[in-house]
């Protein structure tokens, strides 16, 4: 009979790492205030890593008084500690790490040719990238945009900032954003922010780069003007001044007119004085090369929500029409808030009072103590007539992160919604339960019946829920 003692071996090796003994490797990890000396065994490192096996065999590592000295100022002590845990115990715990350290560990494992560890860290990073980015946007950007190994994450960062500019814009963190990243952001067509907000933030960024400048522009000398002009010259052509209201242009932009090139200022003034002649800045002489074509900023959709963002609006609109919308300007729907649970109540009676006979609606539910959002789309009216209704256009959805949404469309000839006054929103036929249904107060239940199983919890409490009337815009 064969018996395996792997747990005992792993335990002893981990104990060896913790307690030491006959260690012949000194690792000098990190630099400055983030510096630490770690100890290990060359035999373990060589067995677990081809990188170290080769380094030891060709004597490329310095050796002093019988100890190998590994100097890695580019690898943080935290990352190297995790790598040693991987070497000795075959485990690495990422749930306790922040996004910056996960990025550092990814770089370190790639540098040391630990491909299995690198791929595992990469999968974890991809799964939690949105959460990490929201927590530490500047630190994440600094690493991602300065190391080519993370080139694949740059589009995600820019896309997230475009969809949720409040993560940085309008905050103190924005002042630390690099010029290069800011230019890339302002060139995007999917940046959901008003032009006057961009102007305000660019000014704040400029003042942060030139702290000696007086906040009162009227007190600036010629040198002060030139200093700020040089700071902002790459951003000015990227701002659509003609999309700023006349009042804001007069009160907020014109006081800084010395910063704006003559051609751009004349074009903006013409647009405000003669609205019928508005044109893109690409038509201004000598600007096309700078702007590289006209920039068509997407205006911020009107979405009054504590749960969803403009990026969700794009996703939901795409699901409704079966066509992928990438620009908020062409979304054909308004999302009008009918009910917010925390404001209006979470009981079925309130739902029917506020949402019956309002046409197509979208219900969005935030699950308590979770990042998950679930909900459903009813292309028909809700009512209290005690009937089931069928439409092939109905769907339910669930996602933890915006990047990986799950949608379930109603099955052919199945009930899409049930309308009973004793219940709130109810999706799918009843067979001991519905696909998604409001029960009492904040309690919801789910049982796959008329829709595919998209892994909505069988029973959960919501921390918030909202109902939106989906109304076709007049011009679509």
UniProtKB/TrEMBL annotation:
InterPro entries: BTB-POZ/Galectin-3-binding (IPR051481), BTB/POZ_dom (IPR000210), SKP1/BTB/POZ_sf (IPR011333), TLDc_dom (IPR006571). SMART domains: BTB. Residues 23-96 form the BTB domain. Residues 306-471 form the TLDc domain. It comes from the Eukaryota. Pfam families: BTB, TLD. PANTHER family: BTB DOMAIN-CONTAINING PROTEIN-RELATED, HL07962P-RELATED. This is Kelch-like protein 17.
């Amino acid at each position: 009979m064969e018996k395996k003692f792997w747990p005992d071996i792993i335990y002893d090796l981990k104990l060896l790492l913790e307690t030491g003994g006959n260690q012949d490797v000194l690792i000098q990890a990190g630099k400055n205030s983030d510096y630490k000396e770690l100890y290990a065994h060359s035999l373990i490192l060589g067995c677990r890593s081809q990188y170290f096996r080769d380094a030891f065999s060709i004597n490329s590592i310095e050796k002093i008084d019988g100890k190998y000295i590994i100097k890695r100022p580019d690898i943080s002590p935290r990352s190297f500690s995790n790598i040693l845990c991987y070497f000795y115990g075959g485990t690495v715990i990422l749930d306790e790490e922040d996004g910056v350290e996960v990025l550092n560990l990814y770089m370190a494992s790639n540098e040391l040719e630990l491909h299995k560890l690198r791929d595992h860290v990469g999968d974890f990073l991809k799964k939690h990238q949105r959460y990490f980015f929201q927590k530490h946007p500047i630190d994440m950007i600094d690493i991602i945009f300065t190391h080519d190994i993370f080139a694949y994450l740059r589009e995600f960062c820019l896309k997230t900032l475009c969809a949720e500019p409040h993560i940085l814009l309008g905050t103190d963190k924005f002042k630390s954003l690099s010029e290069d990243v800011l230019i890339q952001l302002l060139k995007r067509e999917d940046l959901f922010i008003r032009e006057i907000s961009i102007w305000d933030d660019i000014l704040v960024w400029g003042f942060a780069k030139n702290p000696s400048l007086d906040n009162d522009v009227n007190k600036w000398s010629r040198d002060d003007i030139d200093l700020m002009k040089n700071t902002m010259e790459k951003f000015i052509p990227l701002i659509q001044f003609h999309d700023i209201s006349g009042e804001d242009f007069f009160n907020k932009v014109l006081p800084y007119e010395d910063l704006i090139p003559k051609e751009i200022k004349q074009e903006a003034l013409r647009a405000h004085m003669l609205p019928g002649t508005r044109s893109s800045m690409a038509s201004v002489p000598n600007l096309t090369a700078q702007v590289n074509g006209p920039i068509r900023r997407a205006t911020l959709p009107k979405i009054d929500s504590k749960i969803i963002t403009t990026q969700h609006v794009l996703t939901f609109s795409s699901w409704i029409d079966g066509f992928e919308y990438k620009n908020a300007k062409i979304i054909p729907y308004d999302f009008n808030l009918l009910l917010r649970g925390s404001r209006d109540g979470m009981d079925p009676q309130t739902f029917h009072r506020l949402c019956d006979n309002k046409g197509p609606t979208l219900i969005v539910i935030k699950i308590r103590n979770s990042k998950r959002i679930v909900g459903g789309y009813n292309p028909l009216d809700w009512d209290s007539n005690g009937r089931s209704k069928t439409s092939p256009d109905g769907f339910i959805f669930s996602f933890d992160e915006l990047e990986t949404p799950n949608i379930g469309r109603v099955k052919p000839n199945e009930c899409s919604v049930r309308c009973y006054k004793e219940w709130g929103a109810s999706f799918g036929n009843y067979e001991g339960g519905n696909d998604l249904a409001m029960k009492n107060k904040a309690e919801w239940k789910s049982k796959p019946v008329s829709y595919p199983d998209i892994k909505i919890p069988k029973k959960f409490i919501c921390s918030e829920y909202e109902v939106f009337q989906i109304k076709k815009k007049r011009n679509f």
